[in-house]
C-alpha cells in the first residue's frame, strides 16, 4: 500500500488529515442527529402534556387550531433543543461519540 501512496504522492500526514476531517464531520453529524432526536422527544412530550388538558374555553377549537398548535409545538421543541434543551442530546452525544 505504501508503494501506491508514494507513487501517487500521498504522504502519511495527508492521510491523517483526511481521517481527522472525516471524524470531525461524523461527530458533527452525530451531534445534529442527537439534537434532532431530542427535538422529536420534546415534541412528543409537549403533545402528551397537551392531551391531558381538558377541552373547553370560550371558543370552539377545530382542525385548524389543532394544526397550528401542532406546528407551534414542533417549532417550540426545535428551539428548546437547539438552545441547550433538557440535556438529552448532550448525554446521547457523549455516549455515542465513543463509537465514531
Write the layout of secondary structure elements.
Elements lengths: L1 H7 L3 H40 L11 H20 L5 H9 L4
Helix pairs in contact: 2-3, 2-4
The topology string of helices and strands comes to HHHH
Global geometry: elongated
Distance between the termini: 25 Å
Main pleated-sheet profile? none
Query: Structural class of the secondary structure composition?
Result: mainly alpha
Residues in β-strands, percent: under 5%
Bin the helical content: over 70%
Task: Please describe what this structure looks like.
It contains four helices and no strands. With 100 residues, it is mainly alpha-helical. The chain has one domain (2-99).
List its salient traits.
100 residues, mainly alpha, 4 helices, elongated
In short:
The chain is elongated, with a radius of gyration of 23 Å.
Amino acid at each position: 500500500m505504501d508503494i501506491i501512496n508514494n507513487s501517487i504522492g500521498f504522504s502519511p500526514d495527508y492521510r491523517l488529515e483526511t481521517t481527522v476531517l472525516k471524524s470531525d464531520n461524523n461527530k458533527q453529524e452525530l451531534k445534529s442527529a442527537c439534537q434532532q432526536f431530542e427535538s422529536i422527544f420534546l415534541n412528543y412530550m409537549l403533545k402528551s402534556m397537551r392531551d391531558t388538558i381538558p377541552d373547553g374555553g370560550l371558543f370552539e377549537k377545530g382542525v385548524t387550531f389543532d394544526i397550528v398548535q401542532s406546528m407551534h409545538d414542533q417549532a417550540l421543541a426545535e428551539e428548546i433543543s437547539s438552545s441547550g434543551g433538557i440535556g438529552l442530546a448532550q448525554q446521547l452525544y457523549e455516549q455515542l461519540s465513543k463509537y465514531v
